[in-house]
Write a structure and sequence with these properties.
This protein has 311 residues and is an alpha/beta fold. The chain has a single domain (2-308), classed as 4-Layer Sandwich (Purple Acid Phosphatase, chain A, domain 2), CATH 3.60.21. Helices cover 27% and strands 21% of the residues. It has eleven helices and 13 strands. The chain has helices spanning 12-22, 47-56, 67-78, 83-88, 91-97, 109-116, 144-149, 153-157, 163-169, 199-205, 277-281; strands spanning 2-5, 33-36, 60-63, 121-126, 129-134, 185-189, 215-218, 231-233, 245-247, 255-259, 269-275, 284-291, 302-308. It has a six-stranded mixed beta sheet. A five-stranded mixed beta sheet has the order 4-5-6-10-7, with no helix packed on it.
Length: 311
Amino acid sequence: MIWAIGDIHGMLEPLKKLILQIKPLHSEAEPIKLIFLGDYIDHGPASKEVIDFILDLPYEKVFLMGDHEAMFLDYIDNGERSSVWRRFQGGYKTLKCFNMDSKDSKLDNKYLDFLRNLKCSHTEEIGEKKFLFTHAGLNDSYDIDTQLAFKTIEDLKNSNLGKNYYLRDSLLFNKTEPSRKVKDFIMIHGHLPTLFIDKFYMDNSYFYLDRGIPFLKFDNNDEKYSEYLGKYSTEDSRSYNNEYSCWSRLGYDKLISVNIDTAAVMGKNLTAIGLSEKDLRKRDFKIRQIRTNVGYRRREDIRSFKVHIGR
């Protein structure tokens, strides 16, 4: 089974607890594959420790690059020219975590190799469904095949799309929700906290985004969003632990993307989405979440539910 994990941002304890929630769902014979969507560092208290922890996990792993890792590398390569990251994007706390307070300090090769080898995107086929994993989605204003061909950040930097693409619109920094399907893929991404997605979606499709829940984007063509296109429902919306469901009359063929950056570092949830052939045949996928603004030993920290596509 594949589990994709959203933006961590140095939140080590919720990450540990999330992994503990995933492990009991599998027998020893069933392999687990973890796909991390980037933004391991910045803002939270334990950026270095997060990287140590994920590198040591005894599962098959795929590590994608996020914009914060890209900014950290830019700082390493260019120093003070990247001071915006250090001052305003959580970089100062990250430098301190890696003992890089002084001007002459250098990052250990273990972490430098990790950063330079992060992938830009990853694809998986699970049964009849195809999934594309990126940090910030793809920008459908640019050629899709060109974006998918980027393997590392060096490919991005050397692309013929220019600096504006790399800095503002790339699959690391893009802040727009995709407007159409990317080939036959369902895209799984993070980067833009669901708290910040245009309030239009919350008003018109009942996603309860303010509660730190993944955002499902459907291809609705010319139809306006309504409660029929996709909604979360629960018997008591005030209860944190209730089971949620999401249905859509449009079905999997119209599902463009799932955003699982549910604002862990802002006190909402750290999210993992579970994808298996068995669940997908039933039009389901699993969600596991750890709430980050309460004590880590309380049962109320954990939310577990399925998302069902189709009525």
